[in-house]
Specification:
With 149 residues, the chain is an alpha/beta fold. Helices cover 27% and strands 36% of the residues. Strands 1, 5, 6, 7 and 8 form a 5-stranded mixed beta sheet that branches. It has a 3-stranded antiparallel beta sheet with strand order 2-3-4. Helix 1 crosses helix 3. The longest helix is centred in the middle third of the chain and has 22 residues. The chain is globular.
Amino acid sequence: MGVKFMSELFKCIIDLPKFPIKKNNKAIFRNRTTGRAFIASNTKAQALMNILNAKLLQEKLRSGIDTIDYDVNVSMQFYFPQSVYFNKQGKRSAKVPDLDNLFAAINDGLQKVGIIKNDSQINGFDNSFRAAIPEGHKLKIVITKKEQV
């Protein structure tokens, strides 16, 4: 018996000033000059989460969906500005956060605004990735129903 992912339930593409990043339930940022990670003050981390949550809620209302309360697959595609994604040598920068740290904040937002009932419903993150674009931070989310076959 296999598992098949289909039936798109929710999809959005949102622009953000920066991606909220969580690690061990604390937001982390990178110093632009040194590239070193640091724990953000609560106000900065909360401000980014508030922006994310507002945009997710707007997309939920636009789509007209009810809260999803069954197992799903979530694809998250994180697009970073090229200036952040690549270092001067043209390699991926150490400033680009790990996917697991990016997932945590988005999962919290999806749950907080009621797109999903609980982030424990997420069975997989198929087709999720990080990539570079010329400018801006963009997030594409696609939630599909997990169906047994």
